[in-house]
Amino acid sequence: MNWQTLPKTELHLHLEGAAPPAFIQELAVEQGVELNGVFDAFGKYQWTDFAEFLDCYTRACTVLNSPDAFRRLAEAVLRQSAEHGVIYTEIFISPDFCGGGDPVAWQEYLAALDEGADAVPEVECRWIATAIRHLGPAKAIRDARITADSVGGRLTGFGMGGEERYLTAADFAPAFAIAGEAGLGLTSHAGEVVGPESVRDTLDHLGVTRIGHGVRSIEDTDLVSRLVAEGITLEVNPGSNIALSVYDDWADHSVARLRDAGVKVTLSTDDPPYFHTTMTHEYEMMNRVFGWTRADFDAANRLAMEAAFCDDATRTRLMTQF
Ligand code: HPA
Ligand code: ZN
After folding, report:
1. Global pTM?
2. Can you give the pLDDT at residue 42?
3. Domains along the chain with CATH numbers
4. Which of 104, 110, 119, 256 has the highest local Cβ count within 10 Å?
């Protein structure tokens, strides 16, 4: 089976986190800045744990400081997706990186992102505007407001990433309420570096239909039953979880156990160059370690399209690919 050309969906991909190191390095050279400590001797992103990963990511993002840089990035990332057979993707972007929360600048960044996406029509793309948890609830509310004011076109979702150990989900409920009222699809990272209580809090307070990661839900059987009963879709990123040592190795990963329990499980890469993965690699590993066949991948992709933050015409059209 040629896993690379198999049609795929991806619901969990951070635009900045998908930037190849060479792309970030090129911007740094253009701007005449030194990105000390971001790259190792081989030009790869350098970090050792989750906190360092977030720090490396933030520092790399300092050269993503214009709409044109984001236009180029969106185009490069979507070409990468197309190369790995992705036909539908949802990409996390953030008002914090795109204009620092200024509503006028945000519009310019959004237009540039759409221009980048227009250049790769073979991938159907939606944006999920994303609050950064460790920047706090006030910035999350500001992000939700400017997202709510610009909902439409490819901008169909609101989410939250960042340091999961910072505050509790309830602290971010006002931001998610604003986004939900605006009709945006809602998802949040939880159950990645924090255990089941983080997923439970997120379901209790944020009104999400999807959870980014959620893999540590397996540690609580009642929570697993709740995910099934409520039809919550997990955006699982196995390679990311291995790289960040959530699991020691692939065979230990909870993805198969969650699916066996009836949880809706989908596959994504999160931040591929940081975690040395691609969609093709994720599929190869799921096949090798858990014996997933084309039928299993197609089923996961249908679940992804059902949970996608897109219009029904797009959903119906793309569903026929799986
Ligand atoms: N987890 C939390 N925040 C993030 C991630 C992640 O994997 N990637 C980019 N921001
Ligand atoms: Zn993520």
Report:
1. 0.98
2. 96
3. 8-19+67-319 (3.20.20.140), 22-63 (no CATH)
4. 110
